[in-house]
């Protein structure tokens, strides 16, 4: 494909109209096009007097030699990222936890024919919805099925932000897989994508069904309580209901699984500490943030604005920074334990409530 960059659009247009402008700017005949994709769409709001969308578009044409000055894109690059799994063991791997990490681990392993067993202490995402609704309406908490715990993890009920500070080609593969299972295609090219809670419930369910169709198995409402380890070699994973004989376990347990970390510590499993961060949830008027970021002159139908701030102390090496913003959203109760208070942010689901 050929890449058309720095396409500035100052009005709301269809993708086809944007493509025509991009072709005209780069002297590409529209009739020569065979296919195209929007690779990136971002908002440039540095000048409040002139806010515009900045597009990058990839195109396929009948004769690339005719447009030799345009940048070429290697579509085979994704093929080079495919995993190579050389597993000799006949035992099925066990994945503990079915948040984003466990879900995608199960997806990949099942597609390689390894038939993983996923153990999740919470409920299916469809049943989680009922527990979340009941907690919001009545305050009754299910400590195993709530906004943080259950299939899909905490992100499922906090709008599904897909931002990352890393620049790894695998990120695009993850986005493409989400689209494959029902996410809107725009998440692959907007600068700060999110899926939305209502979409995520369906997508997570679709991924789970795909894992099962490939021979995987999911054990819901079942908690891992112990590990059988002999001379440093894993023999089995023990749940409340059964013993799963395996030599491979993937810990995708999230940050709140303190009991599992304690059990691993008892088993003398080596663990490394991370710096401890304290988060504070703050609400701003969305109107104030919009005016600060966009001004009040743009005619574009712009989304709710966000921002990011960071402070780095050179003497201590520590930082203070904003993260996980939910523009246009709400702060909501997200407890997973009795007699505790946890707040999270959510966009689409709270609008329904």
Structure characterization notes:
The protein has helices at 15-25, 100-111, 125-138, 169-180, 197-213, 258-266, 286-294, 348-352, and strands at 2-9, 33-44, 52-61, 71-72, 94-96, 117-119, 217-219, 224-230, 233-239, 243-245, 249-251, 310-312, 319-321, 330-333, 343-346. The protein is of the alpha+beta class and 353 residues long. The model is unreliable at 348-353 (pLDDT under 50). It is globular, with a radius of gyration of 24 Å. It has 8 helices and 15 strands. The protein has 3 domains: 2-73, 2-Layer Sandwich (Alpha-Beta Plaits), CATH 3.30.70.2700; 90-266, FAD/NAD(P)-binding domain (3-Layer(bba) Sandwich); 286-352, no CATH class.
CATH superfamily of the largest domain: FAD/NAD(P)-binding domain
Helix content: 25-40%
Query: What are the segments in which pLDDT stays under 50 over at least 5 consecutive residues?
Result: 348-353
Question: Cα distance, first to last residue?
Answer: 45 Å
How are the strands ordered across the major sheet? 2-3-1-4
The assembly state of the depicted protein chains is single chain
CATH level-1 class of the largest domain: Alpha Beta
| Helix and strand element order | EHEEEEHEHHHEEEEEHHEEEEH
CATH architectural grouping of the largest domain:
3-Layer(bba) Sandwich
Computed CA radius of gyration, to the nearest angstrom: 24 Å
Category by helix and strand content: alpha+beta
What is the arithmetic mean of pLDDT? 87
Strand content: 15-25%
Shape: globular
How many helical elements? Answer: 8
Number of strands: 15
**Number of domains as seen in the coordinates:** 3
* Main sheet record: 4 strands, antiparallel
